[in-house]
Amino acid sequence: MAKSAQQGIQSLEIGLSLFRELHRLQRPATLSELSKLSAMPPSKAHRYCVSLIRAGLMQQDGRGLYGIGPLCFQFGQPQTEFSRARILAIAEAAELAQETGETAFVSAWGQTGPTVLHVEEASKPFAVRPTSRGDMPLLNSATGRAFAAYLDPDRLDRLIETEMSILKREHKLSANELADRRRGFSRHLADVRKHGLARTTGERFQGINSFSAPIFNRNGEVMLTISSHGLAATFPSAWDSRIAMSLLRSARDVMRKIGGNDPG
Length: 264
Fold this sequence. Notes:
10 helices; Beta-Lactamase; five-stranded antiparallel beta sheet; Arc Repressor Mutant, subunit A; 2 domains; alpha+beta
């Protein structure tokens, strides 16, 4: 009886060895690659991949590539989750820029607002590139609003108070004008929660429209955003526009792969 217990389950061991090979690669792989790495025929490797996908240890994307599954990230450390999400978001940004013809970029939280981590420029002759220096404002940037909509209220109030003070000093705004901006900002955050996207229509830079989609971790916190912007003449601002829907789909794809949870 003891000898039988020590023998284990060979098929489980084979499946986990296939998973380890994928984990060592640190990138999505084709079935052919996994077949060679595990020294098994493609048909056999495929059967194990199917079982590992069902268990949540692996997943397959739209290109047919196999990657680490969402269950792994639920057990992983936060930094591992962030690193994985960053890699996936950058890959999505590259596809977005190619698909939409507009610049796409990935951002994370900095000190007082989001900061740009990676930019994928559009292939067209003229494109608008975001600045990668310093943190973006919460009040009038789509990326800032995407983070702000899910921040702790007390923390958000402190950050907005600082931005309002700067606005008051630089533009000599009256108390009524500041109150109007606060009310407008609250409406923008409600829109983020309603549509799953943040939007600007020339508030920060005249003639520039933008969208930003939050990427949530497994605790329902915004860890990254995928954003895109362009000239209003060619970048539609409708919530259901092609660019907006592509951004939303990309963010949800990343969340699905890391086991993220949308609090909405």
